[in-house]
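> tool_call: predict_assembly(chains=two)
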Amino acid sequence: MADVIKTAAIEGMVCPVPLRHAEKIVQGHGSGGKLMQDLIAKTFLAAWDNPILSAGNDAGVIPTQGVARLAISTDAHVVSPLFFPGGDIGRLAVCGTVNDVAMLGAQPLYLTVSFILEEGLDLSTLERVVASMHAAATEAGVQIVAGDTKVVGRGMADGLYISTTGVGLLPEGTAIHGAAAQPGDGVIISGSLGDHGIAVLSARGELGFETELASDVAPLNGLISEMLGASQGIHVLRDPTRGGLATTLNEIVRQSKVGIILKEGTLPIKPAVDAACELLGFDPLYIANEGKLVAVVSREDSSRVLEAMRSHEYGKEAAIIGEVVAEPTGRVLMETLIGSHRVVDVLMGELLPRIC
Amino acid sequence: MADVIKTAAIEGMVCPVPLRHAEKIVQGHGSGGKLMQDLIAKTFLAAWDNPILSAGNDAGVIPTQGVARLAISTDAHVVSPLFFPGGDIGRLAVCGTVNDVAMLGAQPLYLTVSFILEEGLDLSTLERVVASMHAAATEAGVQIVAGDTKVVGRGMADGLYISTTGVGLLPEGTAIHGAAAQPGDGVIISGSLGDHGIAVLSARGELGFETELASDVAPLNGLISEMLGASQGIHVLRDPTRGGLATTLNEIVRQSKVGIILKEGTLPIKPAVDAACELLGFDPLYIANEGKLVAVVSREDSSRVLEAMRSHEYGKEAAIIGEVVAEPTGRVLMETLIGSHRVVDVLMGELLPRIC
């Protein structure tokens, strides 16, 4: 079979690899062929290696561990810029999806990742993002078990976009969801509002002044685990991302057919966020968070849950900010310091594009 | 609470909705707020409604039906143009992921979908894609259980991109994967090669002549179900998408540490594909398929599986195209009509960008 070996020696001739541009993403990195296989081996598997992923089949095989139900969630991530104080698109893509799965009380265990890469992207940029995803996945205790890469031409994306899908095990009897809030429940926020949105805006240079504010992007499944250990009375968990706390609370009152009254002055807002919002005419209630959750908890368990939250790194500044009421149904109201009420409505239009 | 109702009446003032552009995608469709909620209700839920999706939580809850293992796979879809003979990006996004899950012998049941939409996209275009996804999902017997929408500015995408993730139940004892090919096994292809890639190229006007060729994009889980019913001797299933049959077979020989010898003249290739490839200097073995599978089957069951395939709509032109050999390990060879052998290597670089 000498002829075979001879032929093999010129395998590179089929379609020459543009070696001069090896440090940049080229169309071939999305072809399914040799360049993509190299990218998978040297960039993705090198960082994320685990037996499920490295089996290299069309799908990853994940054990259900005997549970009857799984929680599954997906998000595309298009944040601009790719790197910002406190995080980057990779950490965001892992945490955002981990958090969505965790908000049902599920234990997030597996992630899939699909990339859309723009031709010309520095490979080193991709590698930084991949390393950040690994760090976030390790912190959250999840494995990346399947992936995909597509490459589009210059001007057809903005560096890179990432879609992640997360799967978590839902323990039997868990019934935490948006329709479970009940009159009398306490409303708790895990920390300060608006840090992520304002940090990203600052990284874009759109604030017009310097700020030391960092994004809060973080995986919240550890915090939730502590909360679930402290109480059986957690009815709703939700992360106030796009649209901010105001939009999230409006979703809850509609799903649960209740009202919520917030108490002005109880909402934790950092001075830097307050200042930026005042300057720009924004309301921190509508700014995206990526490492915060709102919990609706039975009245009798609210203090216990608050205490459990404050003992965790990501819940130190947790605060009870309001309560669930029977009327007015479907409305979130803010009780001002002088005792009047104003409606806190859902976000209309768009305040800050490409924040996540 | 008259003041509340009065305030509510001016809720649209928070951030005016650009009603004049309601027929186009605007940034607000990705904001998490009112416009996005409308898009979800009127476009996605209207087309895909099911109890899991319409629960409207951060994650969908899916039953595991008592199986111990699930198959999960993800793909980004960036095909250009969005609509092509035989399919569109929506059908592709559903079928591509359904097929990846099915290639492990799993029963695909659930899909998640994340969109990246370019500002200015016609809403009617999105609606056509969403309807096509519904039709494909119905054909495949899968439910869309979670989704996400992001909007990027003009020139930051090319109309729309779709990432899908699929989950399937893996019956106990199923062990179909890329490392399971054994010397003596037959290699079967389910139909003609290269239809998808050439159809997309033709839709781009890059062929320079007219062709009636249509993409083969189709869900293959029904075909696989028939095959599994006919034989316990199916060792490997894989869909030869990007990189074509040549690249797929090379993956199998590497994972299984075997060789494959293809027989020239046995590969089904339509005259239109042959003509286009000859004109453009392509080899149909490297062109993407989206509704074909390659099966590696025990020698004694090959005819039975072939027969089962030919009785199914998507396997009518199935053919035995080669066999697995012990040597040379890791090589795919083509035995020519005159009895010599040439190496069929993995795709280098990129032939046809944005084919899927």
